[in-house]
Design the sequence.
């Protein structure tokens, strides 16, 4: 079993516990909780206003919201004298809070209505302390989730009171010895700032909504200087008892009396006429449904009901009534979030029919049905509400299905549920003071006897741990052991669902699993490894055995998200690698028989266990590459470590520290006879060479090039050739001048392929060769490449002409052509100018392309099965934007940036046509890349076009930039716009901006500074208003926003300094920076 830190893989679930004894205060309800043998007795009550909670006053009692504290002798509570197994004791280094004996058997203190939180705080040392305070708070929280992750939340503070127990001053120096403070806090009747009663502690979870009401006692010790703040955050249950608004009992509801009437049964009844469905007019028989008044009932009691049907024509039997008539007690939880009202409904009890009889009254035949609602947990339900935010209501719903020619009927009445039945023998004041323990249900679902209940409890626990704050995670860490203990006893068909419920936590809160790593690494591989006796053909796809994939994902996710701690578990990495390699070995038993020859990029090839294990090993290697390298020098294993993209922080580690291990292994794999193996090796080389220093690749060039040429000579699969040329390109780019000896043969081969590969099936090969040739030319440099450039550009122009003349326009080839042009331009620089008349019209045309849109009508469904469109709402209209066109446009702008920056003055002739496209691009709403490239282009174009741009052109450029700045709300892009203005000013032919432009720039900066200062002040005010709440997530979001704003402030400062090194607004920039939520960091 899981204890504090271990799991027994053979059985992770502890033996079921014996039922706990009845909680205090439940003896007076024991009879009502059992199924009645006959109708229970009731007496006539006072009337009750239906659906309305009891009236309350907002006036506080004299003793509410008060904490009385007084120093007591230090011997009152000696340090370490409390027994935490018998008392609620919570300690920090210098403080101990004792909240009394564990009288109710709950895991934290529990209090009833108007209960008093009493205890003793002992401060053992006041060293460095400047204040000790106590805060008691309560909060209601609504969280909307999507697949277990929170997407929307709202909170209401229902209780908050704080008082300083001691504060450092001249009159109150630091005590030299321990001090004790007696705490006594009467819990108020009403919610903070409201006239509604304080809600009980509760927690409810559905697949998409989580609700919580929680209370806590916080003791803070604030310290001077750089000394750690001390805090105890102690949760407590608030479980108020409630009783019916009338104290008179409901008795004698259905005594066996001849000819009894409503007036003679000792009760006042609320009789409601049910509404017939599907029939109009007065011809429907009259059906009345009745409940005893007042409509306020104790949870767990049997609630009587009666039904009267007056039917002159229909022939009915008792069986008809028992089959058609149903009564249910329904709990409705109403919540309001984002101005939307949501209702969560659950049936708590169903009615039992006692008697069905036919009578005659005043010559009218009628049927009478009597019975009661049973099944509600005694003391487990109560009505309460925070109006406009969160409310729990109850209703009794009657339905009568169509039978014997009768229509169907429905009727519903709102009722009040309370925890206790008030009786003359029951002391009401005493009941209110004691907690209603029936309102809590601790961890019962995790050890339940039925698997669906276990699964629901597991999902609820995981959702709570994923969304609660740090204090909640600390308190809920004890849930992880029983959550994991549900796994081993499960039948195989349920294991996947349980693992899937746990998986989100491995990403959001991997630290919760740290005490259990040793046990997990023993248990999870048993789910992943295939038994030797099991034939591989039994599980061809992931869907056939999803438990293996889920267990593998759990291992990998913990490795990715908690790699440093996982490293401390010596069995973790070997077990994970062993599982992945065993899974990869299953490819030899592939039933299709063609896995080794199949294109790894083909559609559908990403499915199946070989790929799943392959990706798992790649992800784990990225997370733990340095450690894996030190543990294993296996060349075959290293190949897989670099197959997929490597994170930037690991590139240098692999390229410099492991080149002598990785490169020989990859060369060996390149020479493997299997196409799929040497293709993966080529992909690994691409990743390894990206950004690698020349010395890491140079010593291995001969072996790499020889192996790739052999692949090209013998390959039969198109994907082999594609990968071979891509690998050559990246190797050349990394090797730089070391590639010169191989340049003549490789470039000659590339030109030969471009001349001959004209078939439609060879288009992608031709594209890869174009890219390879351009990168090889860039690697060897302008001096070597310049002599081959005219022939190469001629081949590119021939390919372009063939594409344009082809009725089946090859969109992919056009993109590769434009990309190759920009690469050649970056290599040749101004020597590329002769090719501009042929190249630029194509690139400018691609940059000027209009976005393709389609508008949806109100009743038209947005369908985009291929993912070709993004759907947006623009000015109230629903439109779809074709994504491929947007990406092509953004790439064309990137090419303009490369070509203009490479040619400089040689680009002057094309400056104005580019500006005509670039200036509108500053406000291109549909793609961020287009906007960013436009802002980057403008200073480059001004520098290129000094000889052709007039003063009027420059005025237009700067006015357009200022207009974009004034309208822009995106802080990140705003920094790019200001940088564009700064860089444009620096490259102006004349010194500085004209006065009118300079004044407008300053006015724009002033407006933005005022707006930014107001935003920062609003954030600070918001944090101050919610100081009592845990605002860590909100603070992190605000800090990120202000980090982006700091980039804007930097560019503003640079611009003001260009205009005037002593500009007075420079002080304003610094002042706005200091308004941040983290001013000390922002100002550094």
Sequence:
């Amino acid at each position: 079993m899981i204890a504090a830190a271990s799991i027994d893989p053979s059985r992770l679930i502890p033996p079921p516990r014996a039922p706990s004894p009845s909680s205090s205060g439940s003896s007076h309800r024991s009879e009502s909780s059992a199924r009645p043998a006959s109708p229970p007795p009731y007496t006539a009550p006072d009337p009750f206003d239906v659906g309305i909670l009891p009236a309350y006053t907002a006036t506080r009692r004299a003793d509410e919201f008060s904490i009385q504290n007084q120093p007591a002798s230090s011997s009152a509570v000696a340090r370490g004298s409390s027994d935490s197994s018998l008392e609620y004791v919570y300690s920090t280094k210098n403080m101990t809070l004792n909240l009394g004996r564990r009288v109710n058997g709950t895991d934290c203190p529990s209090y009833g209505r108007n209960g008093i939180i009493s205890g003793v705080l002992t401060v053992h040392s006041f060293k460095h302390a400047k204040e000790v305070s106590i805060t008691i708070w309560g909060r209601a929280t609504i969280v909307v989730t999507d697949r277990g992750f929170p997407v929307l939340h709202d909170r209401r503070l229902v209780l908050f009171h704080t008082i300083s127990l001691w504060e450092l001053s001249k009159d109150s120096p630091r005590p030299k010895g321990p001090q004790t403070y007696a705490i006594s806090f009467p819990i108020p009747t009403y919610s903070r700032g409201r006239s509604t009663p304080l809600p009980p502690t509760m927690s409810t979870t559905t697949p998409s909504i989580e609700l919580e009401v929680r209370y806590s006692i916080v003791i803070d010790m604030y310290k001077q200087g750089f000394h750690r703040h001390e805090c105890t955050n102690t949760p407590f249950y608030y479980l108020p008892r409630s009783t019916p608004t009338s104290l008179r009992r409901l008795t004698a509801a259905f005594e066996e009396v001849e000819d009894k009437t409503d007036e003679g049964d000792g009760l006042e009844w609320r009789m409601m006429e049910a509404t017939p469905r599907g029939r109009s007019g007065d011809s429907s028989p009259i059906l009345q449904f009745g409940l005893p008044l007042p409509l306020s009932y104790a949870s767990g009691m049997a609630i009587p009901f009666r039904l009267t049907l007056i039917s002159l024509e229909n022939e009915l039997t008792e069986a008809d009534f028992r089959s058609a008539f149903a009564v249910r007690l329904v709990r409705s939880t109403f919540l309001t979030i984002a101005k939307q009202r949501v209702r969560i409904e659950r049936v708590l009890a169903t009615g039992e029919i006692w008697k069905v009889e036919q009578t005659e009254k005043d010559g009218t035949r009628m049927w009478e049905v009597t019975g009661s609602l049973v099944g509600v947990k005694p003391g487990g339900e109560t009505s309460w509400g925070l109006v406009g935010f969160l409310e729990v209501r109850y209703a009794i719903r009657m339905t009568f299905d169509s039978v014997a020619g009768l229509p169907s009927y429905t009727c519903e009445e709102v009722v009040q549920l309370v925890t206790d039945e008030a009786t003359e023998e029951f002391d009401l004041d005493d009941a209110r003071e004691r907690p209603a323990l029936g309102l809590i249900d601790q961890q019962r679902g995790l050890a339940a006897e039925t698997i669906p209940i276990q699964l629901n409890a597991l999902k609820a626990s995981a959702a709570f741990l994923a969304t609660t704050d740090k204090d909640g995670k600390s308190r809920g860490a004890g849930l992880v052991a029983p959550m994991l203990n549900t796994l081993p006893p499960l039948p195989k068909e349920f294991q996947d669902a349980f693992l899937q419920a746990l998986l989100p936590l491995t990403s959001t809160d991997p630290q919760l699993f740290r005490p259990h790593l040793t046990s997990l690494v023993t248990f999870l591989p048993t789910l992943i490894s295939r038994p030797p006796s099991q034939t591989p053909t039994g599980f061809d796809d992931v869907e056939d055995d999803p438990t293996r994939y889920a267990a593998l994902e759990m291992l990998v996710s913990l490795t990715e998200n908690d790699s440093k701690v996982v490293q401390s578990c010596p069995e973790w990495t070997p077990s994970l690698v062993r599982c992945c390699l065993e899974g990869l070995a299953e490819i030899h038993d592939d039933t299709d028989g063609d896995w080794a020859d199949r294109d790894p990029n083909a559609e559908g090839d990403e499915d199946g266990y070989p790929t799943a294990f392959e990706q798992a090993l790649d992800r784990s290697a990225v997370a733990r590459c340095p450690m894996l390298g030190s543990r294993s020098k296996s060349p075959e294993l290293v190949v897989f470590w670099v197959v997929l993209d490597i994170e930037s922080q690991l590139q240098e580690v692999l390229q410099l520290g492991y080149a002598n291990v990785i490169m020989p292994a990859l060369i060996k794999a390149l020479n493997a006879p299997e196409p799929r193996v040497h293709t993966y090796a080529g992909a690994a080389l691409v990743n390894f060479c990206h950004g690698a220093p020349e010395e890491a690749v140079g010593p291995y060039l001969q072996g790499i090039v020889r192996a790739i040429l052999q692949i090209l000579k013998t390959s039969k699969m198109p994907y082999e050739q594609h990968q071979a040329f891509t690998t050559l390109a990246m190797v050349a780019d990394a090797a730089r001048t070391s590639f010169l000896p191989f340049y003549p043969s490789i470039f000659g081969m590339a030109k030969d392929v471009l001349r001959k590969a004209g078939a439609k099936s060879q288009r992608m090969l031709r594209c890869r060769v174009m890219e390879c040739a351009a990168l090889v030319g860039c690697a060897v440099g302008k001096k070597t490449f310049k002599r081959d450039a005219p022939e190469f550009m001629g081949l590119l122009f021939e390919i372009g002409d063939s594409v344009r003349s082809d009725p089946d326009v090859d969109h992919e080839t056009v993109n590769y052509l434009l990309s190759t042009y920009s690469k050649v331009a970056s290599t040749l620089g101004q020597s590329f100018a002769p090719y501009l008349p042929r190249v630029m019209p194509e690139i400018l045309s691609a940059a000027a392309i209009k976005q393709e849109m389609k508008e949806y009508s109100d009743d038209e469904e947005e369908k985009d099965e291929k993912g070709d469109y993004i759907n947006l709402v623009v000015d109230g209209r629903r439109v779809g934007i074709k994504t491929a066109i947007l990406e092509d446009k953004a790439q064309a702008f990137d090419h303009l940036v490369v070509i203009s920056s490479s040619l400089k003055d040689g680009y002057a002739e094309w400056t104005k046509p580019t500006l005509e496209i670039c200036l509108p691009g500053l406000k291109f709403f549909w793609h961020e890349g287009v906007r960013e490239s436009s802002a980057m282009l403008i200073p480059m174009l001004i520098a290129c076009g000094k000889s052709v741009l007039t003063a009027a052109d420059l005025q237009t450029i700067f006015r357009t930039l200022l207009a974009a700045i004034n309208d822009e709300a995106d802080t990140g892009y705003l920094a790019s716009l200001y940088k564009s203005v700064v860089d444009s000013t620096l490259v102006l032919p004349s010194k500085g901006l004209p006065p009118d432009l300079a004044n407008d720039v300053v006015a724009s900066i002033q407006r933005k500074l005022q707006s930014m200062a107001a935003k920062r002040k609003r954030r600070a005010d918001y944090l101050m208003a919610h100081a009592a709440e845990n605002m860590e997530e909100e603070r992190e979001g605000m800090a990120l926003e202000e980090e982006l704003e700091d980039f804007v402030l930097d560019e503003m400062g640079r611009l003001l300094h260009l205009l005037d090194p002593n500009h007075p607004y420079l002080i304003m920039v610094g002042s706005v920076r200091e308004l941040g939520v983290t001013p000390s960091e922002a100002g550094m």
